[in-house]
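Render this sequence as a predicted structure.
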Amino acid sequence: MYGWRIFVLTGALLFAGGVLRAQKGSVKGFVYDQTDGEGVPYATVRVEGTETGAACDEHGFFYIPNLTEGRYTLSVSYLGYARKTIEVEVKRGTTTNVKIYIEPQDVQLSDVEVSAEKQQSRTETRVSVTSVTSVDIKRMPTIGGEPDIAQYLQVLPGIISTGDQGGQLVIRGGTPVQTRFLLDGITVYNPFHSIGLFSVYETDLIKNVDVYTGGYPAPYGNRISAVVDVTTRDGNRKKLSGKLSASPFLAHALLEVPVVKMREDRNTSASLVLNTKVSYLNQTSKALYRYAGNEGLPFSFYDFFGKFSVSAGQGNKFNITGFNFRDLAAYRAVRYAWNTFGVGANFLAVPRNSNLYFNTHVNYSQYEIGMSGAEYPENRSMIGGFDIGMDFVYYIRQGELKYGINVEGTQTQLLLTNQFMQRYEQNQNTTDMGLYLHFHKYGKRFVVEAGARLQYFGKISSLSPEPRLSVKYNATDFLRLKFASGMYAQNFISSKSDRDIVNLFTGFITGTSEAPGDATGKLYDNIRNMQRSVHAIAGAELELPANVKLNIEPYYKYFWRLLNINRFKQFNTDPNFIIETGHAYGTDLMARWEWKGLYLYGAYSLAWVTRNDGVQTYPPHFDRRHNTNLMAVYTFGKKKDYEVSVRWNFGSGFPFTKTLSFFENIDFADGIGTDYTTENGTLGILYDRIINGGRLPTYHRLDAGFKKIFTIKNAVKIELNANVTNAYNRNNIFYFDRVRYTRINQLPVMPSLSVGVSF
């Protein structure tokens, strides 16, 4: 029924578009970077002498319809690039196809560049989404001399990290399993390495990152909290290029090969990217960081990424992406090992005389993790599956219509033993399907993005209709008001609990048909075991003189069905799963100012997160009331080849459950015949009945960095980075080991020096 309605609507729009094109003409094309042939996302293309124009999409594609026959001048502008103009001729009833190449330029903000960014703000709702580039990531002080999205995400409003080593990223009250992480459209189930400071995403290859902290549109599904969508560059199509770098933490090598070189008079080009990273911190930390002791920091990882791209005709493109990420960690006599790999292909087709293009994708990814130790039972997990789909984009005047379909097949395996030696084992297969429609239209005052997603979960035979809406009102030239809301569902859960403070074992399972219970053991029989949430976000954007930008967003997320593994199961009659509800609400503030070589940034989050297990309402361990990030970057020198940066983070204390007393725990292995007067028991802990009723001390940390770039004959660049993490050596608590009665702190002062050579 829904597919038929979309088909009819699409046919009507295509017919109407055909009538309009018969009366007038149009211009479409791509904007490329002159140096490497990469499409420039979100560049602004305007028709000089008119108010007509368009913003490029993530591929660098633009479409300007309804132009009267004649000659026009197109003006292209984007931050960090020189303004470019070209002449085009438009004929009635036809579409003019163009390719526009723009050159990077190290200049300060100009009126043209500011207006380009303002144009995007005026034509998109931009509610609870932040777009990040590799330039943004490289601005902040780095840990270990290697800039990484895992570090940059922590400065965005609404995102907190639960620890400097082995911690998790929590986005507006949603756990990692409730956030969808994508790499070129491929799902990455665990995107962060064991030490927690680095991700699997390579900064030098990042083209754009869209971070949706809530209220995300209909093209995204099967997650109930957030989306982090990472798109990588194609390789350099003009010349052989690459980079080598090393730091106390890791070594990195990148190679970009123009298999078929791009020329403006040639319609076909191809490139190959190969990238690898190897961590050796477990070895270097023994010599460089005394606090690591003789054992060193027990973390190591290996990354490999490859991408082959072919472009043909007026924007048609075919990509194949593959990756493999491996981690090893040994902590408290427990060994962890996990392996992630994936491969995906997508084909972007742009019909020559149409205002529609479509993208077809076929992806597969898999994640495996194992946990073992002499004193611990073996735990292991695997999740893997395919994703096949098609997405269509149909351009209309001052807007677009997106629609698509995808099918996901997933297999999960889990073997888990809890502290009561209760064993849980699952091996399941499921097939899910999603169908979506997304309509985007902008005018002088209002911007509307409305859509819906229909998600079917095969394992639990459940259908989830999910409406989405996002609206912006351009009140004045400097004030914009916005609102977004939507419904979301997913059928994946994690073996981690919202009460786990430190847990490197991340297992996944699909939704189950078993009847879940609550903390009392009460079973819920007639209930669909999918997880559900509703988001509501309001906001205001303010642009003040001198390029000062402010953004405020109050938000509310209601998790009206959460499914978790029953980590406190003691008897076979206890349910394997428990069901909870949750709330996450607060306000996020962001301010930034850029003037000449100075960049100032500030973010503040006021947040509350709660869970209700049927017995009591409690804050999960990641409930941080106040979180502040301040950052300053100054670039100077004749060639702007010096840079200093500082970042300060403050966070109020995380909650924890208090200890009432200790006792000797006798297991009575011989039943009533056990002689408790001579039996040696283990240490037992009696916890307070109020979950997470206490608060840890506040957290704050200052990082600083210095960068110098040497250029040799405009062909080779040598980059030196000196950084210090936790500059004033604050003793920030990570957690308290109750058994050993020892406080475990997070990272102490940690200096580092790195060098990178790019060509």
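Summary. Residues 129-657+692-758 form a domain with the Maltoporin; Chain A fold (CATH 2.40.170.20). The chain has two domains: 2-110, 129-657+692-758.
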